[in-house]
Amino acid sequence: MFTGIIESIGSIRALTPKGGDVRVHVETGKLDLSDVKLGDSIAVNGVCLTAVELPGNGFLADVSRETLDCTAMNDLKSGSPVNLEKALTPTTRLGGHLVSGHVDGVGEVVSRTDNARAVEFRIRAPKELAKYIAHKGSITVDGTSLTVNAVDGAEFLLTIIPHTLSETIMASYRPGRRVNLEVDLLARYLERLLLGDKAAEPTSGSNITESFLAANGYLKS
């Protein structure tokens, strides 16, 4: 688990194909690795990776085919800057929100607009994630815990202050950029809870529809 508060901007030193997937070497910049051991988790752009080597200037991790297919990790190359966060501990301040490091989908930066000293980004999420994104709710973008300022269909607006721009890779975002998205864990658990006994029934998708909510008293006419 993570908090979505980025601890360091690192960079990709190498991406090495290995038997159909990839081993990544991440240089970790100012991230303190003194308490990191083999097998520990580190989030790279919001993707939870396991340290399998600790050469001193960073760490190496294996990236599975599943992760490559479901995230924007395929867009990285040698020299790419990345957001880094070590796994939280019982004494970690939860300054962001609970983040699992399991990416739900890949979004796209639609626009970038200056707003005084801040920058507003409009991001388009995959349609299947739109129902989990709420005004003033939390979302993780490339591992950064952020507050949604507006929602329009599958698009949402973020207002990024100068500190966040300087401490994450968001300053480099431009329209067309693909980003890793993780929706709020509570939204996913709430969806499952609302299913009640129907949660045990096989399904190829969500059973939460407007008619389902109305029939079970969650909507009032």
Automatic annotation (TrEMBL):
CDD domains: Riboflavin_synthase_like. Pfam families: Lum_binding (PF00677). Its EC number is 2.5.1.9. Residues 1-97, 98-194 form the Lumazine-binding domain. Lumazine-binding repeats lie at residues 1-97, 98-194. Coiled coil: none annotated. It comes from the Bacteria. The keyword Protein biosynthesis does not apply. It catalyses: 2 6,7-dimethyl-8-(1-D-ribityl)lumazine + H(+) = 5-amino-6-(D-ribitylamino)uracil + riboflavin. SUPFAM superfamilies: Riboflavin synthase domain-like (SSF63380). Keywords: Repeat, Riboflavin biosynthesis, Transferase. One of its GO terms (molecular function) is riboflavin synthase activity. InterPro entries: ATP_synth_asu-like_sf, Lumazine-bd, Lumazine-bd_dom, Riboflavin_synthase-like_b-brl. GO terms for biological process: riboflavin biosynthetic process. Catalyzes the dismutation of two molecules of 6,7-dimethyl-8-ribityllumazine, resulting in the formation of riboflavin and 5-amino-6-(D-ribitylamino)uracil. Homotrimer. This is Riboflavin synthase. It comes from Pseudomonas corrugata.
